[in-house]
Amino acid sequence: MRLDVVTIFPEYLDPLNVSLVGKARASGRLDVQVHDLREWTYDRHNTVDDTPYGGGPGMVMKTGPWGDALDSALADGYERGFGRPALIVPTPSGRPFTQELAVELSERPWLIFAPARYEGIDRRVVDEYATRMPVYEVSIGDYVLAGGEAAVLVVTEAVARLLPGVLGNAESHRDDSFAPGAMANLLEGPVYTKPPLWRGRDIPDVLLSGHHGKIARWRRDQALTRTSAHRPDLIERCAPAAFDKKDREM
Ligand code: 6GU
């Protein structure tokens, strides 16, 4: 998969060299190209923003640098044969970024991120590229960040770990909170490892019992308890058939 990121803060994307995403790049499963938006400015001050039409506070990112930067990234990716690109625009007014969307994006060959600073990018940029490729405007939660770069890191990590060969063990996806299956829409419960006793705290007996059926049931109960406490909205979304008599007695 190829990722392009166009930003006025290229150093903000340095974490893409680290850990899982860094290893995916090193192994050739992920090609990441970070571009400095200011390379597509032609005035003495490398201006990327201007005052909003209609008035109001803040600044709006200008069409010119974005158009030239995106065209350049597109020309390079097409030349190298990456296939059909999709444009990802992180914005608090986007659709919620979910595991389902992460899976959809992970199946694409080429993602181009356009993280904005200030009050956002002139709308004509998104409208222009939407005539040429799918555009995803995504929000990573109900709070406001100073810019979209942190969201690029979030989306990239969620997507990269789904790429074939990036997580060592394919089973690692299976129990993910939000993964499809029997535990669909439930949050993961607690986990434990050695030593068996730490500061007077021991391990739940069932996990030492070797009884796989009981362990699976206990994990499901823990997931249900945790989900009820932290995300009751997720329980509402479960099919009634997902629960049995024992659940209803909890
Ligand atoms: Cl994607 N961008 C910004 N600036 N703020 C956000 C966001 C994105 N998602 C939640 N808040």
From TrEMBL:
Q: Which NCBIfam families match?
A: PRK00026.1 (NF000648), trmD (TIGR00088)
Q: What is its EC number?
A: 2.1.1.228
What does the similarity note say?
Belongs to the RNA methyltransferase TrmD family.
| PANTHER family, sorted | TRNA (GUANINE-N(1)-)-METHYLTRANSFERASE
Q: Report domain tRNA methyltransferase TRMD/TRM10-type positions.
A: 1-236
Q: Which residue spans traverse the membrane?
A: none
Q: Does the keyword tRNA processing apply?
A: yes
Subcellular location, principal:
cytoplasm
UniProt keyword list = Cytoplasm, Methyltransferase, S-adenosyl-L-methionine, Transferase, tRNA processing
Looking at the UniProt record for this protein, which Gene Ontology cellular component terms does it annotate, in alphabetical order?
cytoplasm
SUPFAM superfamilies recorded for this chain?
A: alpha/beta knot
Gene3D superfamilies reported in the protein's UniProt record = 3.40.1280.10, tRNA(m1g37)methyltransferase, domain 2
Q: Which domain of life is it from?
A: Bacteria
Keyword check for tRNA processing, yes or no: yes
Q: Where in the cell is it found?
A: Cytoplasm
What Gene Ontology molecular function terms does this protein carry? Answer: tRNA (guanine(37)-N1)-methyltransferase activity
- State whether it acts alone or in a complex, and with which partners, per the record: Homodimer.
Q: Tell me, what does this protein do in biology? A: Specifically methylates guanosine-37 in various tRNAs.
What positions does the entry give for S-adenosyl-L-methionine binding?
A: 140-145
Q: Describe the reaction catalysed, as an equation.
A: guanosine(37) in tRNA + S-adenosyl-L-methionine = N(1)-methylguanosine(37) in tRNA + S-adenosyl-L-homocysteine + H(+)
UniProt cross-references to Pfam families, sorted A to Z: tRNA_m1G_MT
Q: What class of enzyme is it?
A: transferase
One of this protein's GO BP terms? tRNA modification
What protein am I looking at?
A: tRNA (guanine-N(1)-)-methyltransferase
